[in-house]
Write a structure and sequence with these properties.
The chain is about 45% helix and about 15% strand. It has about 130 residues and is of the alpha/beta class. It has a single domain (about 5-120), classed as Phosphotransferase system, mannose-type IIA component (Rossmann fold, 3-Layer(aba) Sandwich), CATH 3.40.50.510. Strand 1 (about 5-10), helix 1 and strand 2 form a beta-alpha-beta unit. The N and C termini lie far apart (about 35 Å). About 40% of the residues are buried.
Length: about 130
């Protein structure tokens, strides 16, 4: 494997996805982060096509972590992973979007493996609701 662990932000809102991306980009420039916000026509919702494009953009060969805002974003991400052949993909379940994504970016920037990053972010996992 080469490169750093990639991160994909999946949100129903283009603005939320871009906002989380902007927060990370201000402090870490060398982490592969991509967004999949909103529908294909820019409305509120999610897009499998956007998720797939973001996954490809973030994948440097060290794995990709997906963070999402609502359950249907997770469902669409699962569907994308089912039809694509990507090794080391992981959906961060019940992890706060902003804090989890930021922590994962810090860990990726430090050269941590996907397993090490998963361990770090799971400390912030929210209980089942």
């Amino acid at each position: 494997m080469s490169g750093k662990v990639g991160i994909v932000i999946v949100s129903h809102s283009v603005k939320i996805a871009e906002g989380v991306y902007d927060l990370i980009a201000q402090v870490m420039e060398n982490v592969p982060v991509a967004t999949a916000g909103g529908t294909d026509d820019g409305e509120i919702g999610t897009s499998m096509e956007k998720i797939q494009q973001a996954m490809k953009a973030a994948d440097q060969g060290a794995g990709v972590l997906f963070f999402y805002d609502l359950g249907s974003a997770k469902m669409r991400t699962e569907m994308v992973l089912e039809v694509n052949d990507i090794e080391n993909a992981y959906i961060a379940e019940r992890v706060p979007l902003v804090e989890g994504t930021y922590l994962a970016a810090v860990e990726s920037n430090m050269g941590k493996s996907i397993e090490q990053i998963k361990e770090a972010i799971m400390k912030y996992q929210l209980p089942h609701m």
